[in-house]
Fold each of these.
Amino acid sequence: MHRTYKDLPSEPVAMQSTEDIITGTWRSIRPVVNEDKCIRCYMCWKYCPDMSIIVEKEGDYPTVDLDHCKGCGICSNECPRGAIKMQREVL
Ligand code: SF4
Ligand code: SF4
């Protein structure tokens, strides 16, 4: 017989809002924005699956919420100007 969602525990997998869970500790590489290359198109903000690219107001350069960024590299991959480089975390 195939397993269904009914076979999963009744509790949610995450017991807290992801806003409260510091997922940035999972990261082994971090995005670093080069403002000299950035054209503030905000494609990185649009694509980040964790809402970890922060733009306080239109016209600002993007910054990264390192408490929640998991280092997936999607922002770097999608940036049309190559303005985000992934750098290895120093442990
Ligand atoms: S996608 Fe690249 S160029 Fe566009 S805002 Fe983000 S860092 Fe800047
Ligand atoms: S590395 Fe991934 S999680 Fe971190 S800011 Fe970029 S897209 Fe978001």
Amino acid sequence: MQIAIVLPTFNERENIPHVVARLNTALTGLAWEAIFVDDDSPDGTAQAIAVQAQQDPKIRLVHRVGRRGLSSACIEGMLSTDADFIAVMDADLQHDETILPQMLARLQQDPLDVVVGTRNAKGGSMGCFRPHRVLLSQLGRAVSHVVCSCELSDPMSGFFVVRKSYFLEVVEGLDGKGFKLLVDMLSAAKRPVRCGEVGYTFGMRRYGNSKLDTLVGLEYLHTIVNRGLSRLLPMQHTVSLLAALFCFAAHLSVFFMTTRITHASFMKAQVLATTCGVAGTIVFTHFAVLRQQRFGRLEGTSVLLFACVLGAVINLVFAHSLWRDGVQWYLAGPAGALLGATANLLVSRPLLLASQVLSFVGSERSSKHLVDLPDGHR
Ligand SMILES: Nc1nc2c(ncn2[C@@H]2O[C@H](COP(=O)(O)OP(=O)(O)O)[C@@H](O)[C@H]2O)c(=O)[nH]1
Ligand SMILES: [Mg+2]
């Protein structure tokens, strides 16, 4: 298998026989397969692909149920092939399949990671793209430079061929949201990406409608902001910092409300505020951090509880000693909370990292154990 063509589809029934015929003509002489990834289109696209697959073993269908998303569909299709080179193209006949052999040849001859079918360089054109879509594309292109390190004239292109080894290098860090998988793949790289370009003219859609909408635009911005921020500050640190700020804010609100409204004693208000702050941090961290960062549930929760209790004790002891020494209540309370939140932050990060390393070593051991088992026992 020299090349796999991954085609995401949603409501493209009428385009399917045409795109298959065009691929057959364009790729004559190459060993190839086409993987259509359909998100259970209501117009029966999957059935139209299945008809093609029955007649031609080069055509494959990945039928996803209860899922939506162009990028995530492509990622699943790309992971399902053994080919060394993977093309991604739309199934609506807008991408010019005749340049695929040229794109593949560039990757085979030159040490490149990805070759992009481009509308903005020599030999390329936006075709009959409507002015507002050209403007949107240019805007997206300008924004993409914030996070992509390589120079491309058309990073918004959905038409490219990638070396499988490069795809596997970045796949774990992909956002997988929205339409712009290329920007996602380029900005996920931890090294300079080697890119080439081949020009083509963007075609007209003959059947069906575009699925690009406001939500897709927002998803693109989310990918860019996410990447931009994680370069500035790693995501884990941002979330831990947010958790500490959240804890501090919850503490202050409860502390001031209790002392001003119920006129409770200093220590009663401080204990109540600390309890609320700790509860808030546990809920926040559970949803925002533990689920995202793939920590083992037990390790993550134990570390979280330990750090919170330690922070709470330090907070109460410090606040009490300040208050006993005559410091004003409105300074002693927040000072205790600040020290407690800092202790929580300082203790939980290294402990969570250590527990992550331990659970990784554990999973390596169990997978080795699995590999060592005789065939019949796996
Ligand atoms: N599997 C899948 N494919 C999609 C989805 N949205 C769009 N596509 C396909 O992605 C390709 C490009 O979409 P299109 O609407 O033409 O975007 P445009 O070219 O930017 O207007 C087409 O083949 C669509 O059928 C989706 O949610 N899931
Ligand atoms: Mg299209």
